[in-house]
Structures
1.
Amino acid sequence: MADAAHLVLLLVVHLVLTALPGAAAVMLAARRGLRSVPILLVLALAATGIGAMLVFWAFYATQEIGKTASYLLVFGSVMAIAWSIWEGGIEAALLRQLATPVALWALGSAFLVFFGFVHGGLHEPFTVASTRFNGPLPVDNYLPLHFSDWFFEHGHEHPHELVGEWLASDRPPLQTAFTMPQRVFLWDSYGLHYQVLAVILQQLWIVGLWALLLAARVGALTRALVMLTVLVSSLAIVNGFYVWPKMLPAAMLLGAAALVLTPLWAEVRRSGWGAALFAAMLGLAMLGHGASAFGVLPLLVVAAFRGLPGWRWIGVALFAGVLLMAPWWAYQHWGDPPGNRLTKWYLGGAVEVDDRGVVETIVDGYREAGFGGALHNKGQNFVAIFGGGMMAKNVEESVDAAERGDWENVDRPIRSTFFFNLIPSLGLLLLGPIAMALRFRRRPREPESWRLACLCLAAFGIGVVLWALIMYGGSTAQTVIHQGSYLLPLLGIVGCALGLRASFPRFGLWLLGINAVLMLAIYAPAFEPPAGTVYLSSVTLLTIASLAGFLAVALLPALAPSWATTAANTLRGRARTRVRA
């Protein structure tokens, strides 16, 4: 019970501290007349990221300046919210609409924290995170905390201890930045605060996806089903609890997708604020992880097809993007050079650290491979995306284990396939495009869902092709899921789920429900728990309660009209009875 209470306390504290800058931006924008809920949610994501980066650069100066900036960010946000409430003028209906994604984000974060620690291990958060759902996984989840510790204590000085030869400039700083203002208020020495905060950050995809579905005018029930499908997907469970900074930039890209893949694009591409907001979301994604480029590219391609903005818009977007990214580029070049290890790895296939530049590394890599080798590498990239030999081996191992009645070794290969291979990771959802093909010549049951499904799958397909062609390939720089942008699997999940509901709504309802149950069954067991730990009944109950709460809140907009209709019919019936009496 003490462990459960401690987790609840940490969740509340870090949820509030993370939400304050975004809430302040939303309240101020609403006071100025902005009423579009999707745009307000994207603005909230942008404000949280920009606020975190401002504090990060303040700590780069000195610890005193950084702490002052932390207090200003938090208490300034509180004052802005209080002033907006005091002045009034914001409709209660708008606040209720905004409260839904905030509640989903809080409940989704709670679900994953409790689900991850269902077997205990609160005093070994990094061990639990690296083995709970897949693994053991490498130290990437620790790197943002490592750099946060050093910057918090030493400001701009070069980190004296390297983890795996990673420089601070090799790893974009967004997740590190988010930790800086919060550790001024509440922190620990063994990493549990960081683990809970980082889970909350990864779950920001909930806000971005809600904005996307709402902007596309997807029906309330379908919206709830899609949110649940992503929440219990292998992508969100594994990569949300093992907190390497990859779901966080995907959340920012979902915010950008809400502007591009929906009717909002007609307005966004004609306004200066739209240019700045779109550029901010792309810039924050790149500040989260360099592989976000593989998510940025398909969004730009789709945006161009849906309607090119004018030159002035492009100029504003470039200015805003450069303004956001320039300090990081300068730091990579002068503060802690060279900062190009990931780029050389992904584009040139060079894993080992050396003194070569990016262009030289890429040229050397392709020269060494030759035309035939390069072509083979690209082919292997497509094979990796579709599963190939690795998936076949995992299927064989699962079948053999099933024949022996060995559940653990049935489950492990499935988790491995879902972790590495993009197309197989979609599982039952792959029936979505098939359902759409069967329904192609007939009118879809849900036109808005159909339209967004087509756009999501188009962006997914474009992104997959570009990723396979740009990624170097070979055994070290291959197109496994974690070496790309997590926007692509998110778009795949969303597109398939929407396609099912748009084509055959009742069948889609049942299939998405079955898929959710199967995913929970696959990831519930803890196969490598820390020594001396047991399943915690209190945490298990909180896991179930938070998941049920998430589903209830997501379904509320779908149920509210029926409740209103029932209540109205009841009142009419009573009125008729009185008249007759």
2.
Amino acid sequence: MQKNENESYISLNALTQFKDKDGHYNFTADKKAVELYIENVIKPNRMTFKDEKDRIDYLVKEKYYDPSILNKYNEDFILDLLKFAKKQNFTFKSLMGAMKFYKSYALMTDDKKMYLEDFSERVVMNALFLGGGDKNLAKKLVSDITSNKFQPATPTFLNAGKLRRGEYVSCYLLRVEDTMESIARSISTSLQLSKRGGGVALCLTNLREKGAPIKGIVNQASGVVPVMKLLEDSFSYANQLGQRQGAGAVYLSVHHPDILSFLDTKRENADEKIRIKSLSLGVVIPDITFKLAKENKDMALFSPYDIKREYGKSMTDISITAEYDNLVNNPRIRKTFTSARKLFQTIAELHFESGYPYILFEDTVNYRNPHKKVGRIVMSNLCSEIAQVSTESSYKEDLSFDKIGNDICCNLGSLNIAAAMEDASHFGELVENSIKALDHVSRSADLSCAPSIEKGNRENHAIGLGAMNLHGFLSINHIYYASKEAVDFTDIFFYCLSYNAFKASNKLAKEMGTFKDFKLSEYADGTYFEKYLKEEKQPKTEKVKELIKKYGLYIPSVKDWKDLSESIKKYGIANSHLLAVAPTGSISYLSSCTPSLQPVVSPIEVRKEGKLGRVYVPAFRISDDNYEYYEKGAYEVGPEAIIDIVSAAQSHVDQSISLTLFMTANATTRDLNRAYIYAFKKGCISIYYVRIRQEVLDGSEHYDEDQVIKSASDKKKDKNFHCTGSSECEACML
């Protein structure tokens, strides 16, 4: 490729940020950039074949494609499916989408010099895998994926149909118990899972605190931080054939005695011996912590070692909120105290420094848990959208299992809201196809390297169908993101998604059987569905009523829900969990749409792509006509608007939603604390990252605490800032 060819498509892409002489934005320049990129970069480096049969034969012979996937179909069908895929005339809607596909997903020769697939061919391999031998489903999936209605998550889309590959599964969650064997086994399992390309989260709450006894000898335990260091090194070592770096997260209850040391590992000025650079941190916060902060009281930190001895249960397996007073008053349980408000202040400071920690609201998630009789939800995953029950494993001294508990994996994919609505008459079929596809991933994954996860997957077949491009859909329909109409539409869309997802899993159960503990769930007795039997659901705003009518989306009635609930009581559902909304960062670029449920950062996002420099990413179908609906991005609309959207969706999502908070350069730790409280009160289950505008860092990588405190003080003096000066003032609550 010649230099001027490289510059031509980059230059065209750069024009999207400018207006032409008539004052119109030059968004068409990006589409021309795509054409040049394909013509000048991809086609000259595409291996050519006589025909598709020749290509397939070559890829099987050279061990690129897995013949066991292809052998489920006859040759004529595969060749016809490839022709069908080509007839869909898929084109990338943005330069970023094309670059993302060819840099991250397309199959290449082992020397990384030649491309062996285009988008439609990658889609066909996904459809053949996800179809599981069902020709009709495979053809539907080709249509759904090429039309951007459904997009499998990165591990599935990347690996489907390949012989040398990682796993199809997106994420894994592991409990770590308070034994050396459990710690060692968790590290080795994390290595194995990272090798296969999944993100791994681990719950450290049950590990005894620093200074706890070992074999009755006091002040011997090292606490959680050394285990975090071991895990960080493990994740940095493992990667999936150089394609995806190992990635890990650790979760800890805020009532664990090591919580402040745990958080300090992310401080910019932390000692290198304890500093955690690449491992993600998450905290688990029960309701009692908010209550203590509101009352400006100290919070007790309880020894997990003593809890296990006293209760016969691990710390994660009891409700800290329910047992708080008993734990405080029990002299046999050692405890230390810290200010609850200081804890929240520390969390906010770290969000300014690093964006961490993630937050899981412990009682909210367990109150909504439809599997209460099986166990508790004690953690989330690397992207904070998974919420499932895990149970304890125990090990022998040789690290073999004494008892295999249930750990967690989840198989993800996302609907494109705009594309799904544009074919709303087939919305139920789209959801059914997607649920079948994700269910097949759960039944095809080889998780033998992690027996507790394998057991959890085999017994639950948990999946997480999500959605993306909400802001895109709202904007092309002239609805502002920060509006009651946006919340209203989100509520209706996820109401319909939930109904059709349960209906699809119920249909699957008739064929495949139910997940193992279905009879213990709130689905079996109908409790979970009672909220849908109280009143007929309809849009609350005129704009959304018109929108639903325009697109023809069917809203299930109370009778529909009642009939479905009765069918589920009789036949069950195939999957213990069905919905989860992931961040969709990578696949939303691939589909050239807005990520997840969040607003765009700006109408034209700027990304730095290695040697190419800046690449400009126009928002979904942006035009002069709808530009104003993108103009107020994530930082401008503020955290409350995003929380309102997520809260509306969360009421219908059985797991969680990756909720990112965006704060302006003027934000203070108090503003962050208010956002935590608002998310908590609105029933959100988790908070993913907190993003602060770069200006808050004042051009450096260091957080200016003095400046933030000064800003907080200034805000309090502002005549429009109401503060009662008491613990009842929400602004001062933390």
3.
Amino acid sequence: MKPNSTYVRLRTLAVGLALSVCFGIIGAKAVYLQVFRGPWLAKKAASQYEKSVVTYGKRGTIYDIKGSSLAASVEVISIAAFPNQIQDPQKAAKALAHALAEDRRELLSKLTAQKTFVWVKRHVSPKESKAVSALGLKGVEFIPESSRFYPHKTLGAQIIGFTGIDGDGLEGLEYAYDDHLKGAAIEQTILRDALGRGFDMDEKIVSAFSGKNLVLTLDATIQYIAEKALAESVDAHSAKSGIAVVMAPKTGELLALAHYPFFNPNAYGRFQKSLWRNRAVTDPFEPGSTMKIFSAAAALESGIASPNTIFFCENGAYRVGRNVVHDVHAHGWLSLQQIVKYSSNIGAVKMGEMIGPEYHHKMLQAFGFGEKTGFDAPGESPGVLTAHERWSKIDAGAIAFGQGISVSALQLISATSAIANGGVMMRPFAVRSITDQNGHVIKKMEPRRIRRVVSKDTARTLNRILQTVITEGGTGVNAAIDGYTVCGKTGTAQKTDASGMYAKGKYVSSFVGFAPAEAPAIAVLVVVDEPQGKHYGGTVAGPAFKKITQETLSYLNIPPQRGSEGLRVSREDTARG
């Protein structure tokens, strides 16, 4: 009995020791996993049933000056998938392709990806969302997001811009004010059980993370007037493109900024990228005879010349070094006022010679040429105004009548507005205020004076001179408006080719001016690129200027002046300039 008892005790001890070792190992492993590997395991486990998706709060709305919505955000659904929960990727891809009108192979690639989460399609339509929901596919999730919507479609597209799929501003004011418009980032955690079924979603109140709103100086009605008149002008002359700008001279507020051809920011990917940019800000061009306004301003401000100072215009041909400058019509003696009215290139050259390159350059700089205006939009061009020390004799002459210098449409309208504003230049701007989601003003943009460019007397004199351009015999008769006094100037500039040489048959036609002359309420610029056939600014751009100005003055309830019958002219006169 004794040996047997000893054996039992030894066996019990061995088993107990073995169990102790096993439990020790298990305990040690548990300590290792819980203490040393706990965070890693928790993260690994969470990845099987949690997915964090970063979206953004509702983007702020963009309004016109009257409170009409130009850009808004709407709630949409995006469809996502958990590839490891898809039971039959081939079948699922085929079903989704049919419901979403997407490529089956691309969807299959997503559904078989070595990822825990993939986007199937962002911002789907209600019809698509309903169709996918009806499929009842395991591993497919519906995630709420917001999408940008432009209710007026093409209206003001180039200045407003657009956003990408993730809500980032890509062009225009959407890009320039992205930090203000964009809502705060929102992290949504999608929770799924062991069977892959969604059972909760960590949601936050989106409104608390919404972006700020922009209230623009643009007026949707004036924008429509400008776009319609511009499109008619470009189409009538089979031109390449066009730009029209309407500005309030006293403040620098942009009331309209139009481009043609149009594009729809709701589907920007379907249009050429060249149509996206705000060409009034980014694309410089040679202004042609509109530059005579500022050459005349320099001559008057210098004190050397008056409106009645006469210049011999060489009967239509004037040699400058090895080059010959021509006028469309031959003239003998012309006063400074007549040089502007009849748009004499030779007269402009002689004005430039009288004041000298240094002073001429100084005045052009004062009008803002050769530098950015500071407008709140991406990609602004400063234009080209070379240092006067580098001007040859023909350079100085050509710049006086608008060749050899390049300007942006925004620079040209701002400089003209300075004359309309009594000689004071204002900074152009398009955003009046930034507000919160309740409409409370966070920041208000006030008009900013840049500098006085010319004296009040010089501005008044130029005002009278520019009125004569619209009267009988002037180059701008097609811009005359019954009942209103109008100041304006035509421009026709030959374009250069890739080699820098002037291209035959390619012109930029323009007209710039303001009205009413006695108390200018608006300044308007129309630029038409490469019109076919007739190409003079008075003929091509003048009628569009007239239509925009007349309809805008009527819309603003600015009554016609009495006693303006003397400024009416025959519409059958042939305009040149």
4.
Amino acid sequence: MEKTMTKTQEDMINQTIYDTLYNTASMIPKNTTIEYYGQKITYKDLLKIIKKQAQSLNALGIKNNNPVLTILPNQPENWELLYATNYLGGGYAPLLPSIAPTTLEKIISDLEVKNIFIYKDFYEKYNKQLNNSSLENIILLDGTETIPLLIQKLLKLKQKLSKNDSEIKTIEEQIEYLKKQQNSIKNPKLSLYREFINAGKDRIITKAQFEPNKTAAYITTSGTTGIPKLVEQTNEAFNALALEHKLFVNLGVGDRNISIMPPSIAYGAGAAHYALTLGFNNILIPYLLTDSKTFKELWLKYKPDQFIGGPIHAELMLKTLEETEGKEHDELLRLYRNAKNIVSGGAPLKKETEEKLRKYGIKIAQGYGDTETLGGTYYNIPETYEPFSAGRPFPFVKSRVCKPGTCEEVKDGEEGELHVITPTLMKGYYKNTEATEKAILINEFGEREHPTGDIVIKKGEYIYFVDRMTSMFQRMGFNVHPSKIKEIIDKYLNVGEECAVIKVEHPDEQYVPVAFISTKRNFDILKEKILENLKQNIDELAVPYDVIEVDEIPHNAGGKVNYSKQKKLKR
């Protein structure tokens, strides 16, 4: 499957991501590129918005190599800021709103961030970290920035009437209140997004030129150890991912793409770039999609050609078919079957779910990738679909399966650790040489090779996921590390007390972390202290769904926790 790049393909990769977007926009300026709550943005308009943002970022002092931090939902401004930052040669750093406050504090310090864009409802959670940092400017958004003023007013009126609450404040009122709460003149300046845009009006700026191997974005990953790291992704990596999708996936200009993955995860950032640069019509959904009713309504309304999600969304797809009857069932089935690309990534799909969908005539395109490779190296596309597989490598990807911890290849069909060589491989972890050297090896051919830490079986071109070398799993599409949760809980336990953290199947979320504790103390008080600490030090989605008291933690003959037996204990 591996191909050699042509000169034209190399030229496409070796440019800034802004230039890649600009080239597409120049060919189809009147095409809709983003839809958001009924508001449509053409490619021509998108370039204008990005230019305005770049002017305003420059007014804030953003220039070559400066980072811009965002904590925003999947709204247009979060996509646009990637390119506006890139226009000036800066580094885009989108963060999930579930990130732990202590992690945010570390990232702001490490990157020496001066400016952050944050959704107003997340501000209170991070108030302490934001106001005791190197930040100079905090720009607040409420998700209606793209929506016309009249619709904004109607939405606010509807919200007020539905809640029957005369105390509901506008974002303007809220920001004035927040300013009064700041207790020092040294606190960062609070501004509305509208004020930010107006500050750059008519400002003269210069577009940054392409520089090889320059960081375009910092994507946060907790890594296999659970320790937060910043992955530096380059222009070349983003562009290579777009090129590979252009060559490998049956999608093109005008295809409708429902986007639910925010650019704060590699999976979402990479998908946003290739969706824009390949000319898709992208319908942005800014909320977590976890219920079958909303899932069904989105498909019936937008009739997408592509949908990128995780295992939970494949489960929702199956659920909608089982819940509906008659014409609605037939229409849903037709839409699912006719979609060009339905993706389930981030974690393996249950075999029984995939099998049931296959019986309906629906092929789910599973894939494989990690943050270090911008979310994509393998893809099980419908045209060459192989059941229960993570697919074949993208055109410019090479791989081998080795004995874990070595570069010694195993035979075809044997289990081993997946190693990949790909143009989407990260530059490295920011200011973390030791971790980078473990994640990127220089092999015998002088290539940058990435041991993924995942156990697979390779059969010909196809790989089949077996297990992670760590206990990490996904909740709602985001990484959860039981070992990290256990590490924090263990600090509260006395000698003779024990904890085990495992993933447990959940009817709505696929998997959730559950902690089991064996203790002789007052369990309720201990549980309260543990949960309070966890909420401050790990992502919200990693906080255990439940903490349960048990008489003892089961062990195997080797003295290790018997996780399979633990799951069977009465909960």
